[in-house]
Amino acid sequence: MSDDLNVRAGRLLAGHSDVRFNPDRKTMIGDVVARREALVAACGCLATWTPPESTGRSPQDTVTVRRPESGKNIDWDAPNNLPITPDTFDLVFADALAALGAKPRLYAVDRVLGADPGHALPVRVVSDRALTVLFADNMFRRVPNDIGSSCFADRPYTLLVCPYDKLDPARYAGRLRTIPKTGKASDMVIAMDMDRRVGVVFGSAYCGSVKKHMFTVMNYLLPLEGILPLHCSANEGRNGDVALLLGLSGTGKTTLSADPRRALLGDDEHSWGDNGVANFEEGCYAKLINLSPVKEPDIYQACFHAAPYLEHGAIVENAMVYPDGRFDLDDERYTPNSRGSYPLSFLSNIKTPPVGGHPKTILFLTADANGVLPPVARLTRNQAMLWFLMGYTSKLAGTETGIVDPKSTFSRFFGAPFMPLNPDVYARLLGEKLDRHGANVYLVNTGWSGGAYGTGKRMDISLTREIVEGALNGSLDKVDYVTDPVFLLGVPKSCPGVPDPTVLNPRNTWPDKAAYDERAKKLAAEFCAQFDKAYGTKAIDPSVARECPGK
């Protein structure tokens, strides 16, 4: 496949009169402020706001080129894998080149994704915005001296970012999605061409569009090299024992991975290769709504520590700030999705470089609002593959008109929007890694006990911490287990640090046992229906499929 698009991007930079190649950090911060792309807050961090359509990702505008080379690898039945034609991508790419070419100044930064030099992906981010490249500097890694040892050394990726330009809807009629309200084509696109290794962010000023674009690219490329990408946090104990924590929003991943006794590798994106676990990134992109300096002191300090602004560089995106430069993180009138971007070095307890050995313990976190899953369960290899496929948690629909049923949410591999390959690829890789390295896998429920949401109570965080400690120190591997008849899970009869072992069996905590049985069967049926819908034709190993509740 020709690299003509990368060549054209190179020509753009070579022919432009003002391109800042790999400026130092202070220069980027200074340019952000001088160009009024952000304001300096009281503590010295940078406060910025995006247009209303750019306060979060735009999944409906996130598309991938479909062609024979890569098309066979991608699960086009998944709702998050939206195809576009090669010629449509070429139009987008041409428009991005034209938009950037007309700007008075451009920035280009060369970084990599992946702390393991054996599979670090070189990426060049090109934009007219200093804030975009500062974000890339916060989040992505410096190019290592031994980049030549990477399997991607001769396959770099180029990302063009035009955050405040808009596509011409007439030009893309019938090519990009139609906006129901206007009847016109979208003027925004986040597009990936996996074969030619180029991408475009056009019309989205949300910084996360850059981060998740590259995460998706990594999740496409790595499994084809036998490396498992994971949407997870990772930390390491004093003896070098690595733990992975996977879970969707609201399950406690950030809280539980921030352990003062364990060094943090990263909070979001990792690879598991032949050498062990490695962070993709050099930074964090944390949710800030309701962030507490008491409950999340590390994240708060990273974003809001006092420093001269040229030495700071944390980006606070879409949070409420007052004229005196102070923030109100509880105010969500603009968006509940306010974010903070900062380098890992701003945290106090990190491992440098953020790499570790093969994981000893893997925790799948769920917040089951049905109240029917145990606080902890040990998973067999096939069960781990099944629950990895399902990525289950509950979301609450709201309480404005009274108590309502929680909604079951299934997000494959705990990161459905960013996992483009056919699902058997990721599941099989997990099984192979478990076979080879023997990690213990546990399901940890941080949700409800004693009844469903509205009747029962949320698991006490101190109970969850004792359970996590038991999983990490190996004591949960030494107790007796019973099998849950509905969910087929291994439930411990006891757990060190948990004084009342009856709470470990969720049925014991319900006053009405028949109500528990009914609710458990209902959730199991939802598992079965989701599995059949998402994976019924996807070549999932039958021994894994049999572990699905309700089968």
Notable characteristics:
Phosphoenolpyruvate Carboxykinase, domain 3, single chain, 6-stranded mixed beta sheet, Phosphoenolpyruvate Carboxykinase, domain 1, alpha/beta, 551 residues, Phosphoenolpyruvate Carboxykinase, domain 2, 27% helix, 3 domains, 31 strands, 8-stranded mixed beta sheet, 14 helices
Radius of gyration: 24 Å
Report mean pLDDT, rounded to a whole number: 95
Q: Give the N-to-C terminal Cα separation.
A: 44 Å
Q: How does the major sheet shape up?
A: 8 strands, mixed
What's the architecture of the largest domain, going by CATH? Answer: 3-Layer(aba) Sandwich
Number of domains: 3
> Helix coverage percent of residues?
25-40%
Which homologous superfamily in CATH is the superfamily of the largest domain? Phosphoenolpyruvate Carboxykinase, domain 1
Q: Strand share of the residues? A: 15-25%
According to CATH, the fold-level topology of the largest domain is Phosphoenolpyruvate Carboxykinase, domain 1
Given helix and strand content, the structural type is alpha/beta
Low-pLDDT runs: 398-403
Broad CATH class of the largest domain? Alpha Beta
Q: In one word, what is the shape?
A: globular
Query: How many H/I helical runs?
Result: 14
Query: How many β-strands, per DSSP?
Result: 31
Tell me briefly what this model is.
By secondary structure, the protein is α/β, with parallel strands linked by helices.
SSE blueprint and pairings:
Elements: H1 4-15, E1 19-21, H2 25-34, E2 39-40, E3 46-48, E4 62-65, H3 68-71, E5 82-84, H4 86-101, E6 106-113, E7 121-127, H5 130-139, E8 157-162, E9 189-193, E10 198-202, H6 208-221, E11 228-231, E12 233-236, E13 242-247, H7 253-257, E14 263-266, E15 269-273, E16 276-279, E17 283-287, H8 297-304, E18 315-317, E19 320-321, E20 327-328, E21 339-343, E22 355-356, E23 359-366, E24 376-379, H9 381-390, E25 392-395, E26 407-410, H10 423-437, E27 440-445, E28 448-449, E29 457-458, H11 461-473, E30 481-483, E31 490-492, H12 506-509, H13 513-535, H14 542-545
Helix pairs in contact: 1-4, 2-5, 9-10
